[in-house]
Amino acid sequence: MPQKRSTLLLCIIGGGGVFVFLILCLLALALYFSDESPSLSFSSNEVAVLDLAGTIDDSKEFIDQLKEYGNRSGVRSVVIRINSPGGDVAASQEIYQAIKKFRAESKKKVVVSMASVAASGGYYAACGADKIFANPGTITGSIGVIAEWYNYGDLLRWAKVQNVVVKSGAFKDAGSPMRPLTDEEKTYFQSLIGNMYDQFVSTVASSRKMKESDVRRLADGRVYTGQESKANGLVDELGGYQDAIVAASKMAGIAGSPKVVNPAKKSISILDLLLGRGGASALSLSSDRSESHIRFEYLWR
Fold first, then answer.
1. For the structural domain made of 45-264+287-299, what CATH number should be given?
2. Are strands 223-225 and 139-141 parallel, antiparallel or unpaired?
3. Going residue by residue through the chain (301 aa), what tens digit of pLDDT does each one get?
4. Any catalytic annotation for residue 172?
5. Active-site entry in 77, 120, 229, 249
6. Catalytic residue among 44, 167, 172, 202
7. Catalytic residue status for 43
8. 65 phi and psi, to 5 degrees?
9. Planar angle of CA 150, 152, 156, nearest 5 degrees
């Protein structure tokens, strides 16, 4: 009998210990997310930070987070930290337009802080902000368009594989990776690139309040340091991330030090990775043929 009581007592103590441990874990998670997530913050003097990093191939996640900051009354201004060589033309344009729309609808200030690289599409996106900060050694600029793809026609001929095409028009398979471009196709693609280039130049000229002729003199695809960009009008100030935070705070009329908030960290499970939710799928059935088909990009190589 005493032995049974001892066993029961040990079970109660052990169960109580597990319960306390779970409570502590929940408290730790609550504290963690209260620091990271703007949705759980009750401060009214917040400067929100949003990263734009890596090659730009999609805009949805960035735009969704920007909209969330627009709906948060405690967020007074936003700093966009850019570390990107650019990417797809349309995605870069969507981000630029989203920033402009955010400013117009929310009346909140947006400051860009350029990290190591904010070139081509990264610079295009930056033009949507109220103010642009760059480090003296930041690589930016690269105003221009590039289109490239692989051509493996010689490899197919070597393997004695013949490509058969039936098409409705002369340009339907223009840019095929299985044959060289014709002269007419080169002219056609150059006209498309010229049109996208003009869009880039026009956006820079209007957002930076520069003459288009002055922008075109800078827009031959070359990159510039932050120091050079300040001199030629592509950025507003030389400074780092903290300088951008201070500027965003002052522009929003925040007295004292602001609370800096970041998007909540996303947890990705093994199932998410397998199914491709929130990242590349290990079991993806779709074949990405983008490297063998022509892509138009605001991208610094």
1. 3.90.226.10
2. antiparallel
3. 555 555 655 555 655 555 656 666 565 554 444 444 444 445 679 999 999 999 999 999 999 999 999 999 999 999 999 999 999 999 999 999 999 999 999 999 999 999 999 999 999 999 999 999 999 999 999 999 999 888 888 888 899 888 889 999 999 988 888 889 999 999 999 999 999 999 999 999 999 999 999 999 999 999 999 999 999 999 999 999 999 999 999 999 999 899 999 987 766 666 665 555 555 444 444 444 445 578 899 999 8
4. yes
5. 120
6. 172
7. no
8. -70, -35
9. 165
